[in-house]
Write a structure and sequence with these properties.
By secondary structure, the chain is α+β, with helices and mostly antiparallel strands. About 50% of the residues lie in helices and about 15% in strands. Strands 1, 2, 3, 4, 5, 6 and 7 form a seven-stranded mixed sheet that branches. Helix 3 crosses helix 7 and helix 7 packs antiparallel against helix 10. It starts with 6 loop residues before the first helix and ends with a helix. Keywords: FAD, Flavoprotein, Oxidoreductase.
């Protein structure tokens, strides 16, 4: 796919790149709050895809992917993915009218940052690496996870989430918890204020400070149910959110790979003739990941596959950049590699993303009777799109 951008998207890219030129990749609080507010004023960034009725601008996901590519290129510590990519779509899809009108305008004007907290794998909860309908990623009624109990005064949560993106700085948490026990076992989403009693947040020490994460502990923590008590809807909404978020992270990874390549070319300019063919190979990686990311921004059903391609390109380009320069590229290029590792921990790993995409595409379906290893004819998968299925087949070697 050759991405063709509108004049508005080109202007968004130019404005974001200009605003991020010279910005620091170190942010003790997790992100630069003043920069986040400036981007909100100039571009309406946090509410770019939110409806106008809630203070947003109603732009397509592709516009937010353009922004994500530029924040990835700059390795910007930003609440964009957690707030606009994860929490806001969940509130929009599941929230009551009062919750949407009370929270979404504050997200749109950058006065409120949010994140999604799940006790298990975020990739599993978002159905990127498997089926999320069982609810085991939320605790499943067993020991561990996060459990919710309804009392006369409302809901309380107890449990822990060990890896929460921007969990130390977000002002509002959308927390996935299990409730109901055996009779009405279900996973629901809850709203928890950052200053709620019983909530403890500990920022984790990670190699990549530009992708901050925190461990959360909840001990009889008061919470408000997001929307209605309808556990049947939650997995589908999480999966839809995951596909779109994967497209955004894929665009960010492609931008990070492009940033690593650009810095490497600058560093090796004197030896460019000798290393041109190797740099050209890296350029092909970047452009392939970029095209796949924008395909997924138009058709989020391909989000997991695009994310796999983006993460692999980011990891490959960052690693090769260090090797080409003999390990003397400086901390900037090494940070791209650290970001790649952090992103795989967040929504990977790559092989699981590809396996899940191949399974959804029916590439490895097995004939009905037990014990056979023969493959069935591959059924058509119109929801993924012909280009994405062809890409899965090429990547899987099928």
């Amino acid at each position: 796919m050759d991405a063709v951008f509108t004049a508005e998207q080109d202007e968004i890219r130019r404005t974001v790149r200009e605003a991020l030129t010279g910005t620091a990749t170190d942010a003790p609080e997790g992100h630069d709050r003043d920069l986040w507010a400036r981007l909100a004023r100039r571009l309406g960034l946090p509410g770019l895809t939110l409806p106008a009725a809630y203070g947003g601008t109603g732009r397509p996901l592709t516009d937010l992917a353009v922004v994500s590519e530029e924040t990835g290129r700059a390795l910007l510590p930003s609440p964009l993915l957690a707030t606009a990519g994860l929490a806001a779509p969940l509130i929009l899809a599941l929230g009551t009218p009062e919750q949407r009108s009370g929270l979404l305008p504050r997200i749109a004007d950058a006065s409120l940052t949010c994140t999604l907290a799940v006790p298990g794998s975020l990739a599993d909860a978002l159905a990127l690496t498997g089926d999320n309908t069982t609810g085991t990623w939320a605790g499943g009624g067993r020991a561990g996870g996060i459990q919710a109990r309804e009392t006369g005064d409302g809901w309380i949560l107890y449990g822990e989430a060990p890896q929460v993106l921007d969990g130390h700085s977000a002002a509002l948490l959308v927390v996935a918890a299990h409730t109901g026990g055996f009779p009405r076992s279900r996973a629901l989403l809850f709203l928890v204020d950052a200053d709620a009693p019983g909530l403890t947040r500990t920022r984790l020490a990670t190699p990549d400070g530009t992708r901050p994460r925190a461990a959360l502990q909840l001990r009889h923590c008061p919470a408000a149910l997001l929307g209605a008590d309808d556990g049947a809807r939650v997995p589908g909404v999480l999966a839809a959110t995951g596909r779109a978020a994967a497209a955004l992270l894929a665009a960010e990874a492609a931008g990070a790979a492009a940033g690593a390549l650009s810095r490497t070319v600058e560093h090796l300019r004197a030896r460019e003739a000798l290393l041109g063919h190797r740099l050209a190979d890296l350029y092909v990686h970047v452009q392939g990941a970029r095209s796949t990311a924008y395909y997924a921004a138009c058709d989020p059903a391909a989000g997991a596959l695009a994310l796999a391609a983006g993460l692999e390109a980011q990891r490959t380009v960052a690693g090769e950049a260090v090797r080409l320069a003999g390990g003397i590229t400086g901390p900037e290029v090494r940070r791209y590699g650290e970001r790649a590792a952090a992103d795989e921990l967040l929504l990977g790993p790559v092989h699981r993303l590809r396996d899940a995409a191949a399974e959804r595409a029916g590439l490895f379906a097995v004939e009905g009777h037990e014990g056979t290893s023969a493959r069935c004819p591959r059924p058509p998968v119109p929801a993924v799109g012909a280009a994405a299925v062809a890409a899965v087949r090429g990547l899987s070697g099928a």
